[in-house]
Specification:
This protein is α/β, with parallel strands linked by helices. It has a domain of 96 residues. It is built from 5 helices and 5 strands; from the N terminus they run E-H-E-H-E-H-H-E-H-E. It is globular, with a radius of gyration of 15 Å. The model has no long low-confidence stretch (mean pLDDT 88).
C-alpha cells in the first residue's frame, strides 16, 4: 500500500466531566474526513495503564468504525505504556484495515521483535521506526 496525503493521529475527546463525548468525536472525525483524510494514526489513551484486553477493545472500536487504513502509534514515552507484541499481532490477525504500526519504543529490540512476530501472521503489515537512529537496524 502506498501512503499519500494526510495521516493524522486520532485523538479521543472527552466532555467537561471526563466522559467520552461521542457526538464531539463524531463531528471531529467527520471534519477530518471532509478534508479527505487517507489514513488514521491511532495513539492509545494515556495517563493510565490499560490492560492488553482494554487496548484490544479500544483499537477494535477504531478499526470497526472506519474503512480507512489504521496505523497504530506506539509511543510509550508519552502514553506511559508500550503496546505489546502479542496485542499488535492479535490486532493484525483480526483487522485487515489495521495496516501497520509506528514504533517509537527506545529499544531496537522492541522493533525487531515486532517485525519477527507480526510478519508471521501478516506479511503486508508495515512497521515504521520513529527514530532516525533505528532506521538502518530496522
Amino acid at each position: 500500500m502506498k501512503f499519500r496525503g494526510i495521516i493524522p493521529p486520532l485523538v479521543i475527546l472527552f466532555d467537561e466531566t471526563g466522559e467520552l463525548d461521542i457526538d464531539l468525536n463524531r463531528r471531529y472525525v467527520n471534519e477530518l474526513l471532509r478534508h479527505i483524510i487517507h489514513g488514521v494514526l491511532a495513539v492509545n489513551p494515556f495517563y493510565w495503564k490499560l490492560s492488553d484486553e482494554q487496548l484490544y477493545n479500544y483499537y477494535s472500536i477504531i478499526a470497526e468504525s472506519t474503512k480507512l487504513p489504521v496505523i497504530l502509534y506506539n509511543i510509550p514515552s508519552l502514553t506511559g505504556q508500550s503496546l505489546s507484541v502479542e496485542l499488535v499481532k492479535r490486532l493484525a490477525c483480526n483487522y485487515l484495515n489495521i495496516r501497520g504500526i509506528r514504533e517509537a519504543a527506545r529499544k531496537i529490540s522492541q522493533i525487531r521483535e515486532m517485525i519477527t512476530a507480526v510478519k508471521t501472521v501478516r506479511e503486508d503489515f508495515m512497521i515504521f521506526s520513529a527514530f532516525d537512529e533505528h532506521l538502518l537496524p530496522a
